[in-house]
């Protein structure tokens, strides 16, 4: 897994464009959800790698990337995305982010509009609901005092609620639980603070990048009001709500997610 140094810390990423002729393809950068890692996108990368040079990176303290205390700032996480593109020699890319990845995509589009060919913001929000503040405070306190294992069961239930878990075999769910369990406490705390502080909704009308917003109709973390608010705030944004999708739409409804993303990218 290649890596680069950013802010003195190792950032690990994957790159499907190492082969001959691959670098001529348009680039597509995937950004994973909180307490996951780049491998969450393996299925989508397999679907898009014939058409796009696909990159994905581990957020600080997730997967193989080193923790960075400064990752509590969404601006630094957007800078991480830019650093990965720099390391891969990519000037512009389509950026697709899930959950916190979608928040980072928003900040990236505002901070680096010249480097974003398009944005896809999936299962995310521009502003947390008021009641989410105490929930995130309790969540971060539990991670700090009890460790990341304390979050596995509740996170899986939230991501695969509304009857979605019964549709999957343990072999499908175990890799996701393992991603959560192997996230460092430092990485979860810093990125969790970035999520807790996220509030870009009033800035999003300044976005000039073609944008797709994807929501899951059974997403318990960010129900329909959140993607709807994003699509309303971003000029010209397209909204797609996916049936039978919870918070991990690319994993739960991969065919529908690929169709929505592929159609959007083909039109940009």
Task: Give an account of the 3D structure.
It contains 10 helices and 8 strands. Strands 1-2-4-3-5-6-7-8 form an 8-stranded mixed β-sheet, with helices on both faces. The radius of gyration is 17 Å and the shape is globular. The two termini are 30 Å apart. With 268 residues, it is an alpha/beta fold. Helix 4 (132-146) packs antiparallel against helix 7.
Low-confidence residue ranges: none
Number of strands: 8
Beta-strand content bin: 15-25%
What is the string of SSEs from the N terminus onward?
EEEHEHEHEHHHHEHEHH
User: What's the alpha carbon Rg, rounded to whole Å?
Assistant: 17 Å
Total number of helical segments?
A: 10
Topology:
Elements: E1 3-6, E2 9-15, E3 27-31, H1 42-48, E4 53-57, H2 74-88, E5 93-98, H3 100-111, E6 116-122, H4 132-146, H5 152-159, H6 170-182, H7 185-197, E7 211-216, H8 225-233, E8 238-242, H9 249-252, H10 254-267
Parallel strand pairs: 3-4, 3-5, 5-6, 6-7, 7-8
Antiparallel strand pairs: 1-2, 2-4
């Amino acid at each position: 897994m290649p890596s680069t140094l950013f802010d003195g810390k190792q950032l690990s990423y994957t790159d499907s464009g190492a082969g001959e002729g691959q670098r001529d393809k348009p680039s597509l950068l995937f950004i994973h959800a909180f307490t996951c890692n780049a491998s969450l996108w393996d299925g989508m990368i397999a679907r898009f790698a014939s058409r796009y040079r696909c990159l994905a990176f581990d957020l600080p303290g997730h997967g193989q990337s080193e923790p960075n205390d400064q990752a509590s700032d969404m601006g630094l996480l957007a800078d991480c995305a830019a650093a990965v593109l720099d390391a891969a020699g990519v000037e512009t890319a389509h950026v697709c982010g899930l959950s916190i990845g979608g928040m980072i995509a928003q900040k990236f589009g505002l901070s680096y509009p010249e480097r974003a060919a398009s944005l896809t913001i999936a299962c995310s929000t521009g502003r947390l609901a008021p009641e989410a503040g105490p929930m995130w405070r309790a969540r971060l306190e539990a991670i700090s005092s009890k460790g990341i294992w304390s979050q596995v069961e509740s996170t899986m239930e939230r991501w695969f609620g509304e009857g979605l878990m019964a549709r999957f075999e343990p072999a499908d769910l175990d890799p996701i639980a393992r991603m959560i369990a192997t996230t460092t406490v430092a990485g979860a705390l810093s990125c969790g603070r970035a999520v807790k502080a996220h509030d870009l909704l009033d800035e999003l009308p300044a976005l000039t990048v073609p944008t797709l917003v994807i929501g899951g109709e059974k997403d318990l973390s960010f129900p329909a009001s959140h993607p709807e608010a994003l699509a309303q705030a971003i000029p010209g944004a397209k909204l797609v709500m996916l049936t039978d999708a919870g918070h991990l739409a690319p994993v739960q409804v991969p065919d529908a997610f690929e169709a929505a993303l592929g159609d959007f990218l083909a039109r940009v």
